[in-house]
Amino acid sequence: MNGGRGYNPNRSNNEPVKRSRGETKKLLTRFLAYYKPHKKLFSMDMGASLLVALIGIVYPIITRTMLNDLIPDRNYRMVVILGLTLLALYAAKMMLNYFIQYQGHMMGVHMQVQMRTDLFNHLEKLPYSFYDTHETGKIMSRMTNDLFDVVELAHHGPENLLISGLSIILSFIYLSTINIWLTLIVFACVPFLVIISYTLREKMRKAFRDMRSSMAEINASLESSVSGIRVTKAFNNAKIESDKFEVGNEKYRTARKDGYNAMARFHSGNTFVTDIFNVVVLIAGGFFLYNNSIQFGDYSAFIVSVNMFIGPVMTLINFMEQFENGVTGFERFCEIMDAEPEKDAENAEDCGQLKGEICFKDVTYAYENDENVLTHVDLTIPKGRKFALVGPSGGGKTTICHLIPHFYDVVSGEILLDGREIHTLTLESIRRNIGIVQQDIYLFNDSIRENIRYGRLDATDDEIIEAAKKANIHDYIMTLPKGYDTNIGERGVRLSGGQKQRLSIARVFLKDPAILILDEATSALDNTTEILIQQALDELCEGRTTLVVAHRLSTIKNADEIAVVDNGAIVEQGSHDELMALNGIYAELYSLQFRAGVAV
Fold first, then answer.
1. Average pLDDT over the chain, rounded to whole?
2. Do the beta carbons of residue 336 and residue 133 sit within 8 Å?
3. Beta strands, E only, 382-526
4. Could you report how far apart the first and last alpha carbons of the chain are, in Å?
5. Which helix (H) or strand (E) holds 376?
6. What is the layout of strands, in order, in the sheet containing 358-366?
């Protein structure tokens, strides 16, 4: 649960994924699985594509018949009939192309929606550690840009392969009926196309990965800058943010330059070879015509028909670009889908309604590839007690809070809730019993009512109002024009810090958990607001096991027990009076705050 074996945060996004043949087969199998719900539509799309390819062969056949037979024989009636037949076929082709373009794209949309749903649902299951190493903007890029290219490949890939492949086969058969030797000469140019495509393919592949990565960096930078726009304006640092954005933008320009350079070499090289086809037909056909090895009508039909071969070849060449985009996007999609989600241990049980006893036994924890954050921590909090954690920043207080809801896995030791090791309990049941109020409150861009209801989704309006009253926010809500239906904006931007905090407290009141974690819940508030909110918190703590992380020591003087956490270890523990009597770290911190006027 500490990060997911499929996702490697240390691997550069520019580094091509190296897969064995078995992994490539597995990747293809996963990709094809998204076609299964749309088998009927896919079959109809392929059937329409097949008919378009067959209709394409009709024109050169009719052209040859007219030039060799009908026109010399002055059979104008059949010329008209075949012309009208061709017109009818082209009308049918128009309808088929409409179906391919519309329904084929809709099939791609259906697949994109399913992939995006799968990705979002998987993101919801990933552990905290994944988000410690993965930026929001880059995740958004995977869900938008990458998936768009994937479904474009899903739609156009089979069509291009079927239509172009069949057209090449049919053109070879038809051209062979005109003149087998001239046909073989023309097709002898194909290996040159294969060699050039293979040579330039890997360079274009890497270039497109670089383009993907640079686009993701821009999204990440933009998401960060827009989210912090108010801080930027407050500090008058628009120029700094602009410079930071331009760094990513310049990487994008360079990546695009390299990408288009690789693409230009790919297309220009292949186009040159395809142009040789016309030269070969012109010269070789001229010799055959001069030696009476081919009739003029057949030669004219061959010139017309050879374009039926060149067109599909060019389509397949252009398809290589789309293929690289789609495969790269699907690989990046799979990188996240392969990240191991957090999951319950085998035979884990629902813990039901917890009483609230918490026990740490010799717990050691380290973030991935880092030194220990906690080392051999022993801690017991009886049910219904108020326990406080204090100490220098970075000492491990918040980590202890995150381990209780099983957001992270310990390296060693045990954490017990009501005497039961947390690995034996389901994640859902543990978190159902825990309420968290943090300093950094996240509120959704929704109404006040729905933000409070987030604590318990089946709550009635009366229960929501009661929770708001307990959090001392109801009276303020009623002064708003739309009351509980007022939209609070992105991250609650239309509310003050104290109002946001009280909404989060109302949310926890509604949840009614057995265990309450207050992680610096009032440290960002002014003294007056803190006093008002502290009243709501005191009521919230009644009858619950409460773990408080506090910066202002005056707020936890009355805690049943206080632990001083420093460098990942509990160095002092006891009541306020006991810790003051020790005249150690706690006493020093308290004295410093008191002299600074913080503790009063």
1. 80
2. no
3. 386-390, 412-417, 420-421, 434-438, 515-519
4. 43
5. strand 372-381
6. 372-381, 358-366, 412-417, 420-421
pLDDT for residue 18: 54
For 573, other C-beta atoms within 10 Å of its C-beta total: 17
pLDDT in tens, 265-285: 776 776 777 677 777 778 888
505 class by beta-carbon count within 10 Å (0-12 exposed, 13-18 middle, 19+ buried): buried
Q: Which two tokens stand for residue 554?
A: 């005056």
Q: Please choose, from the candidates 594, 492, 518, the residue with its C-alpha nearest in 3D space to the C-alpha of residue 553.
A: 594
Q: Is 153 helix (H, G, I), strand (E, B) or coil?
A: helix
| The predicted structure's pLDDT at residue 136 | 74
Query: Of 357, 392, 358, 397, nearest to 374 (Cα)?
Result: 397
Q: Which residues of 143-167 are buried (b: 16+ CB within 10 A; e: fewer)?
A: bebbbebbbbbbbbbbbbbbbbebb
Percent of the chain predicted with pLDDT > 90: 16
Average pLDDT in the 177-202 region? Answer: 75
Of residues 389 and 531, more confidently modeled: 389
Q: Which residue has the tokens 């109801």?
A: 474
Q: How far is the C-alpha of 503 from the C-alpha of 506, rounded, in Å?
A: 5
pLDDT of residue 370 exceeding 70: yes
Whole-structure pTM value: 0.71
DSSP code per residue over 395-411: SSHHHHHHHTTTSS--S
Q: How far is 249 from 217, CA to CA, in rounded Å?
A: 9
| Angstrom distances, CA of residue 240 to CA of 223, 247, 362, 579 | 15, 11, 46, 46
Residue 54 CA to residue 48 CA, distance in Å, equals 10
More confident residue, 130 or 313: 130
DSSP-H helix ranges across 228-237:
229-234
Which residue(s) pair with 111 in the sheet?
none
Q: What is the pLDDT of residues 44-56, one digit of tens each?
A: 988 988 888 888 7
Instruction: Report, in this order, helix, strand and coil percent for the chain, each rounded to 5.
Output: 65, 10, 25
Q: What is the pLDDT of residues 383-413, one digit of tens each?
A: 999 999 998 888 888 899 999 999 889 989 9
CA 207/CA 202 separation, integer angstroms: 9
CA 306 to chain centre: 45
Tokens of 77: 């009636």
φ, ψ for residue 300, nearest 5 deg: -65, -40
Compute the distance between CA of residue 522 and CA of residue 530 in angstroms, rounded to an integer: 6
Q: DSSP 3-state assignment of 371?
A: coil
pLDDT category at 357 given cuts 50, 70, 90 is: very high
Strand (E) or helix (H) holding 363? strand 358-366
The secondary element (H helix, E strand) that includes residue 102 is helix 76-125
List of long-range contacts for 121-127, beta carbons under 8 Å, 24+ apart: 122/336, 122/337, 122/339, 122/341, 123/336, 125/341, 125/342, 125/343, 126/4, 126/339, 126/341, 126/342, 127/1, 127/2, 127/3, 127/4, 127/341, 127/342, 127/407, 127/408
> In this structure, what DSSP letter does residue 17 have?
P
Residue 598 has pLDDT above 50, yes or no: no
